[in-house]
């Protein structure tokens, strides 16, 4: 694969990572919770879409119309039933409870769907393997471009929502100071539930594109959580666009790593993550400012 | 204000003295196991001892150090791998197990330099990523043939009965050592530091507690303990398969044992390991349902019974079996105002 | 009937009993000042009235309705607004955004962003500035403006002079006096005794969680207030070593 190809493919992969990471960052930004069930919930969405596509014959994109709001409602429920209590109980509890949830979710999926991998690609015609010729013998996947464009639209839409709508304003304020926000009349429980619903809705979207890109099995959630986390950390927690930058860096590193060694894909990704982490922890602030807000 | 003359600060109560004697007697009885018990029971006890080691170590990290790790399987698998590596280089199997655990402890130092500065949630996932990295790196070694794994061949120089007995004794000794080390650690100055850190890191630092050092010590001790458990598991089951040894299910087991048994209590992980062992014995055959039960229990206990079963018993019945802390014994008629 | 009344209120702050058996009444149009040393419980009391702290005993009534167990954001909707100690603005958001957050209360009334700008003219050029970049006085003005935007019936002001230059404090109090003149009901906490006596109809002094002395600004002498403030009227307990 040519250098240019590798960079382009890696950058486009970053679009997917931004999509899967944005829900994780969003939930952390508003509620200071790292949801360890994040990845397995994306797999839930993927399986839900697959079930509708396989058993009822609908196009996965159409199926999303149902799955997205359902996941959103699930996010609302998750917040009220689990996350709210976890937050009140202390700093360690949300991690333990979401970890427990992740284990429950992936094993229930296994119980119901078995070990076989599934994919959404067969249900979308040739989308998953069509490509554009951008000249010089380099091809770029249609799906990869679509994923990237949707990611940009998602991040942009979310940013506009946060900046210009009253609810977005309340979410930003709650993220900044959850105690004071109650004193100015904002119902922070409601706001947190909305934020969780939004996070899960983005997870549903990411689940669709995951299923189109690759095959998945009930235990694929762990890797998705790890990629999402790595993208968010590389980009620097702060802005949604930072998450996109992080995703692109991760994608490019992984694509290059894959050229070098069969395990290189994963190793290069983890490697760049650790490098950035060490840099962020030990180097004086200004070296990494370009990665921050 | 003068100290009231009849207020006693106690470490050992009558009950805890009795318990200590019982524990020592139990230990001696267990040591006689290979002479008295059938092989199948010895195997099961070996597994139980390994579970206790894992639970005690995870509890040390989370309950005493405030560090929730979703990646202790990094050391579990690393210990087993290093045992195989050392054995390939000619080290006799049982010494290799111990050396492997210590080497894994050494590896924990550079890892600690990265992860200990992270906040709670980030630490958890970062350890998970570290476990993945270790797994990938271990897979690069040609003697580990991908997922088919590799056996600790040198163990076959012992016959089955010998091997079972040596592994049993080593597991018993490891469990005993780990528990004694934790017990002494908690009674020491480090122990008070550590519990202060768990309760409030900033406040602890402000009274001179060396937070970074204390956490590093616990982290390294936990690494050695988990690695030791990994080498013992290898000795018990002979084959090392990366995916199984580095799997996230080990973290799930540890979290379950500690949450259900009682986080931050000395007796908690022991109780948790016993409960886990029983559940696995009775329900392990049901396939993934028992994992669902484990996850659900972790979820429910963290929300509803955060101190675990032992914590509940301690609070409800004011029982303190082993003298890890101090008791203030107030004279009759003392009032609070 | 008083607009705001507090009966036998106990509030714990962690393990500490911060407010003990406090009775307090504020009538419509009145300005009551709460004074006392640091740690006397004034801020905790104000926050308990606003709903940020749970009372362990006692009741709070707003215009006859029992609001003791009503969550904070609903109290804002009912007409209580707190300007917190230290301002607690949303620093990453602009002045205008901070003011518009008050829409969450759903209360209709006279206060708009423009009216706040008129009341605090120093904010006019800073309307689109991020609150993190404002001076102390501008922040205080924004914080008060934010509370006013909820069209409150009772305004709670917690140490509005804290950390401000004397000039800034003058400006803030001039606005407070304008509010008082327009009929607002105010309960304010103030360390500066002079300011408190100047604007308030009644003064209450707190010490160690209790109200130890209260009266109209005219009837209380400085000596009595100072004694109450420092607890000099209490007999010494035990020996010090």
Rg value of chain B: 21 Å
Write down the overall mean pLDDT of chain A: 90
Distance between the termini of chain A: 34 Å
Based on DSSP secondary structure assignment, what is the total number of beta strands of chain B?
A: 4
Query: Which class do the helix and strand fractions of chain B yield?
Result: mainly alpha
Largest interface: A-B, 43 and 41 residues
Question: How would you sum up the major sheet of chain B?
Answer: 2 strands, antiparallel
- State the secondary-structure class of chain A: mainly alpha
Order of helices and strands of chain B: EHHHHHHEHHHHEHHHHHE
Q: What coarse outline of chain A follows from CA principal-axis ratios?
A: globular
Strand composition percent of chain A:
under 5%
Low-confidence stretches of chain B: none
Oligomer class: heterotrimer
* Domain tally of chain A: 1
Into which percent range does the helicity of residues of chain B fall?
over 70%
Amino- and carboxy-terminal Cα gap of chain B: 14 Å
- Mean pLDDT value of chain B: 85
Spans of chain A with pLDDT under 50 lasting ≥5 residues? 286-293
Q: What is shown here, in short?
A:
With 293 residues, chain A is mostly helical. Chain A has helices spanning 3-31, 38-56, 60-89, 93-113, 142-164, 166-176, 178-183, 188-213, 221-235, 240-260, 264-282, and strands spanning 131-133, 139-141.
How would you portray this structure in words?
The complex is a heterotrimer of chains A (293), B (337) and C (241). Chain A has one domain (3-220). Chain A is 75% helix and 2% strand. Chain A has eleven helices and two strands. A two-stranded antiparallel ribbon of chain A has the order 1-2. Chain A is globular, with a radius of gyration of 19 Å. With 337 residues, chain B is mainly α. Chain B has a domain at 38-248. Chain B has helices at 14-31, 33-36, 39-64, 73-88, 93-115, 120-140, 160-187, 189-199, 201-206, 211-237, 242-245, 249-261, 268-283, 289-304, 308-317; strands spanning 8-10, 150-151, 239-240, 327-329. In chain B, the strands form two sheets. A two-stranded antiparallel ribbon of chain B has the order 1-4. A two-stranded antiparallel ribbon of chain B has the order 2-3. The two termini of chain B are 14 Å apart. The model of chain B has no long low-confidence stretch (mean pLDDT 85). Chain C has a single domain, classed as P-loop containing nucleotide triphosphate hydrolases (Rossmann fold). Chain C has a six-stranded mixed beta sheet with strand order 6-7-8-3-9-10, with helices on both faces. Chain C has a four-stranded antiparallel beta sheet with strand order 2-1-4-5, with helices on one face. The radius of gyration of chain C is 18 Å and the shape is globular. In chain C, helix 5 (136-148) packs parallel to helix 6 (166-181). Chain C has 241 residues and is of the alpha/beta class. The longest helix of chain C is centred in the C-terminal third of the chain and has 16 residues, at 166-181. In chain C, 44% of the residues are buried. Chain C is built from eight helices and ten strands. At the A-B interface, helix 3, helix 4, helix 9 and helix 11 of A face helix 6, helix 12 and helix 14 of B.
